[in-house]
Amino acid sequence: MAQMVRPTYAEEFVRSAEIWRSEVKDDGGMISLRSQVRRTWLCVDQPVLDYRDAWRLQVELVAARHAAVVGADVMLLLEHPPVFTLGRRGGRENLTVSESFLEKSGIPIFHIERGGNITFHGPGQLIGYGIVDLHAAQLTVTDYVTGLEEIMIRTAGHWGVIAERNPINRGVWVGNTKLGSIGIAVRHGITFHGFALNVNTRLEPFSWINPCGLKGIGVTSLERELAQALPITEVREVLKHNIETVFHVKLALTELAALEAMLREEKVNHSPGKTAGLESRSR
After folding, report:
1. CA 216 from chain center: how many Å?
2. Domain extents for the chain?
3. Does the structural domain 33-263 have CATH classification 3.40.640.10?
4. pLDDT band per the 50, 70, 90 thresholds, residue 34
């Protein structure tokens, strides 16, 4: 019997990208999933949320989604105050300034469970955290990540910015400069963390690190590529449309307070054991 050969990362990358291209329809070139049923995702469109608070919210949502307390997938759209985050691959070795310099800057560092290396988040960068049940959505991890890339590519393309994938590192690129990053985690088959698209964010802090652990690359934003101001509110609307199109879903806008109230009620009505083992790994 012939031995099964597992595809390499590059082969899997090409396969997944080809799936998305093969799904192009004739009605304006929109891409959608094979399923004919348009699922509903809850969508929280939040201006700015502290990183630690966003992390805790995601962890609680993953537990609630796994326990079927939250019956739909959730997309959190938000911005963060300035913060550096380290993924599972670490990243402190990719600081190009001293930690004392960072302390003086007032920008904290969090070590979390997403994939990838070090990156920067700040106002003007649009973050999307998807709490998605991959099995229910009939998606592999690679398909999901490729879909997140497609959302950013389409959003950039709305303003005439040509962004592309690059097999050396997931995310979207304009030439040798990175426009959007992706780092996800999966627990119980449910995703959290997600993507970050640079709209009009301050780019200087990226020069204090090797972004995503890569040397010799630059970081850009939609505003820099356009050489003109771009309100992030406009980008949010285009991006939400692209989420609906790419993942063939309907976003149901939900207030953050309503979602938090649902989670608080769950804690009151059920034993606390369901969220055991989900402690913060920030430091």
Report:
1. 23
2. 33-263
3. no
4. very low
> Could you give the residue numbers annotated as active site?
212
Q: Which of 282, 266, 269 is nearest to 61 (CA)?
A: 266
Task: With beta carbons less than 8 A apart as the criterion, state whether 199 and 222 touch.
Answer: yes
Cα gap 220→211, rounded to integer Å: 11
Selection from 182, 183, 169 nearest residue 215 by Cα: 169
As to burial, measured by CB atoms within 10 angstroms (0-12 exposed, 13-18 middle, 19+ buried), residue 66 is middle
pLDDT digits (tens, 9 = 90+) for 59-102: 999 999 999 999 999 999 999 999 998 877 666 777 888 888 98
Q: Are 46 and 13 in contact (CB under 8 A)?
A: no
Query: What is the average pLDDT score of the chain?
Result: 83
CB burial of 106-122 (b: ≥16 within 10 Å; e: otherwise) equals: ebbbbbbbbbbbbbbbb
